Amino acid sequence: MSNDVGEEDQVLVRKVTPARDVVLQIWQGRRLFSDAEIDTVARRLEAEAERAPSDADAATGFRLKDLQIGDPRPEPLWDAQGSNNALEHFDETTQELAFRFIKSDARIEQKLRRPLAWIQLDGVRRTFYAYQVYLAFLMLVEERGSRRGMIVADEQGLGKTTEVLLYILFNYLLVENRRHCNAHPQRHLGPADDPNSRCPSAHLWPIVCWCEQNVTRELSLSPRSGATLLFVPKNLLPTWKAEWTALGVQTSKYALHLFVHHSRSPSSRYVGGEYRADLCLVQHDTGAWCPRDASRAHSVIVATTPGSYPRHVLSYFRRSRRVSQADGSLSGSTGYDDGLAWARVIYDEAHRGLSEETIATAILRSLSQKQGEPPNFAFLTGTPELRNGIADALPLVEIINAASPSIGRHDLCRKFASHANLQTIRNTQRKLQRRSLDRDKRTAFAATVAALRVAYMVKRTQESIQNGKPLTQVPPLELFDVWCTSPSRHTKIPIAEVESHVKKSLLNAWPPGTSGPTTSITMEELLRVAVRARMIATVPGLARFPPEKLTIECIKKELRHRRGRSGRLYKHFVELYEGSAKLQVLASIIDRLGTDAEGEPEHLVVLSEFPVICECVQMLCLEKDIKSRWVDSTTDLAERGRIVETFQTGTKLRPREHRPRVLIGTVDVLGFGVTLGKSARLVLMEPSHHRAVEAQAAKRVNRIGSRSDRCCFYRLTNPDSAVEKLLVASQDRQARFGDLVSRFLYGAQP
Ligand SMILES: [Zn+2]
Ligand SMILES: [Zn+2]
C-alpha cells in the first residue's frame, strides 16, 4: 500500500472538485491519504461551509442585550462532562471504522477546526456530523453483540432523530448489499481476487461492500431482514415525518419508506398491500419464525403511538382474529406479540409512559419476548432519569435484557441482568429520595448508578469535546435566578395561609405515632398537595378564587377572555398584577427586550407548570398590547404545530392574525421536544422540582441554529414562599447527587 502523494492525486485535490468527490476518488484508489491531502480536504470543507452556511450552522454574532435582571446562577443545569468520558462511548478506533464503513476517512474530521455537518452519503440529501455517523454505526455494531438494544440519551439538539434514521438506513443498506452479493456474484469480488482491490459494484452503495476485505466483514455486520417499528408521542409524529423528508433519501436509489399509522395524524399513510405479506412472519421448515425469504420488510418504517398500535398496526395487519381483549391485546401468553417481522423497535421520548405499568410497557414487553428473534430496542430520551432518577431507566433496561438472550455474557451488563438486582436498585433509589440513605450507602449507590448508565446508555452533550472541538456550535446559556419579593405585606398573607394548610394536610395524612411527614415526605408527595400553594406564590391574588376555578377546563369555559378584555379573570387583572411581583418582573423583562438578528423586537418564551399562570401572562401581554399566543394540553396537535411555526418563522398565519412576539405555554407541552430558537430568552415562572425539567425547558431556546451570542434563562422565585424555596433547595441537592455520580464517571472534579 503506497502512502505517498501521487502526482495525479495532487492535481485532483487542486482541481475545483467538491471535497466529497475528492474523498471518494482517493478512497477508490485504496490507499491511505497523505497528511497533506487530509489537510487540503479539511480546509476545503471549511471554505465550502463558509460560502454556504447551512441552517444547522447559522452564523452567530448578534449580540443579545443585557437586561440587568436577576442574579447569575453559578451551577450549570446539566452535569459537566469532559472529553472521552465513559457515557460518550467514544474511541478513535470505532470512529475510524465508522468512517471506513461509509468510505471516508476519520482524519479529515480530526483536522477540522470547527464542528461541521460535512459527511455525505450518496443518495441522501442531508449531511451529517461525525458524532451522528458514529452513533448510528455504534448501534449497528453493538446490536449484533450480546446487548440487543441501547438507551440513546444524547442531549436535545444533537439530532437523535437523524442519528436513528441513519442507523435504520445503515441496516437497510446492509440487507440490500448482501442480497446483491448473493444474487450477482459475478459483479463482486470472489475468493480468487486480490484482497486489496475494490468491489466493481462499489458505486451502488454508500457503505463498503461485503465482498471486500473491509469493515462489514471484519466486524461480521450481518444483514438483518425485518422492519422498523417506531413509537412516537402523537405530537411528535409530524416532526418525525418532517425529519424523514428532510433527510432526503432518494427513493429512486433506496426503497426505504416511512409510514405513519395513526388515526388522527394529518400525515397518516399506511403500509400498502405491496408490503403486507413481507411484514408477516412465516414458519420455516426448521420451525423458526422469520420473515419470508427475500422479504422487503427492511424497506419499511412504521411510525405509530403506543395507543394506536393495537388498532392501527396489529389489527391492520389482519391479526384481528387473534385480538380478543377490549384493549386490543392478544389472548393467551402471546400478549401483544403480533407475528410481524420487526427487526428493531425505536421508542421516542422514552422518559414518558414507561415508568409505570402502561399499555406501552405491555406492548414493549411482548415484543421483547416475541416468537423467533426478538427485535433490537433503541430508547430515545434526552432525560432518561427525569422523575425518579435511575428508577425511570429500569423498565428500559429490563426490556433490553429480555430481548438479549446472552446479556449475561456482556461485560458491563452482566450484573444488571437479574431482575432481583434491578429491584434492589429501585428500592435504593426510593430510599435516596426519602433521604433515608446514609453517606456510605449513597456513595456506593452512586457507583452502581454510574455503572448502569455506562452499561446501557450513550449520552453526549453539545459541549462534549471530540476530535478537539465541541460537537456543535451553540451559544452559551446564561442562567439567572430572579427573586421576586412580595410587593406588600398583605400579599404575603395568602401565601402563608395556603402553605400552613398544606402542612396541616400533610400532617393529617400520617397516622399519629409514625415517624411523620417531616422526616420522610418525598418531594412528589409534597408537590401533589402543594399545587395551589405554588400558583399563589406566583400570583397571590388568585387566592380569592376557589381551587376548582383554576383548572384548565374552568379557565377556558368561564374565566377566559374569548373576546379580548371581557373575560372574568381579566376583570381582576389590575389587582392580580399589583399583588404579583413575578408579573411585574416579567413586565420589566418585556419592556427591556432589545432587537434580534433581523432588527425586529426580540421574541420571548414564557413557561409555567400551571395553566392559570399562563393565562395571567397572556393577560399581561394583552394589557401591554403585545401579541402573544398560549399553548396548553387542550390545544389540538395541528394547531400547536401551527402556532409554533408561526412564532418561529412568521409563516402559516391566518388572515388578520398577527405573529406572536411572546409564546406562552405549560411546561408539559412546550417544555420538551419543540424548537423555539426564535427567542434567545426563556422565562420560567416558578422553580421546578426537577433540575432536568428546567434543563429541558432551557434547551427549547438554546439550540443549534440559535443566532445570538448567548441565550438567557430566567427562573422566577418568590422568597416568601416556603414551597418555592424548598424546590430551589431540592434542586441543589439533586445537583450534588448528580455530582457524586459524575465523580465516578469522570474522575474528581472541584
Ligand atoms: Zn461487492
Ligand atoms: Zn428463515
Automatic annotation (TrEMBL):
InterPro entries: Helicase_ATP-bd, P-loop_NTPase, SNF2_N, SNF2_RAD54_helicase_TF
SUPFAM superfamilies for this protein: P-loop containing nucleoside triphosphate hydrolases
Sorted UniProt keywords: ATP-binding, Hydrolase, Nucleotide-binding
Keyword Nucleotide-binding: yes
Superkingdom to which the source organism belongs: Eukaryota
Annotated ranges, domain Helicase ATP-binding: 124-410
Gene Ontology BP terms: DNA repair
GO cellular component: nucleus
A single MF term (Gene Ontology): ATP binding
Any Pfam family hit: SNF2-rel_dom
PANTHER family for the chain: TRANSCRIPTION TERMINATION FACTOR 2-RELATED (PTHR45626)
Protein name (record): Helicase ATP-binding domain-containing protein
